[in-house]
Amino acid sequence: TTGQNDLAEMIAPAPDLLMVGHTHYPLTRRHGDTLVINAGSVGFPFDGDIRPCYVQAVYQKAAWKAEFIRLSYDHQAVLEDFYTSGYRENGGAMVDLILKEIELARPQLSHWNHRYLKPVLNHEIPLEEAVSQYLQNPNTDRLK
What pTM, to 2 d.p., does this model score? Predict the structure, then answer.
């Protein structure tokens, strides 16, 4: 999360509305007179809600407001596509982390990376074993 002072520097001069992205978490936040909005993610939401999310920003009564809109889709079909397309079988060890992200709508790759990337790159643990260990007990590997 970007601190207030850092945010002030990043958006000077402050606009009335600032839309940001790439965090996979929908949010609104006020910074002075600026409304900061992040729509979240259509394909990989990480807030625990599997539904895609987008935002409608409207200017009403001299102020910006955000409405988050969630869409329904066939989530089970997406999960099945991992198997029926051959991606799960042929995509490599990291596919299981991506699949888990889609199943849970929670980040996995970044948490795995924090715990296992260096040991894998240093040949201290094979990639497949690192993924397996993480998936067996992902809660011990969360970013602090």
Answer: 0.79
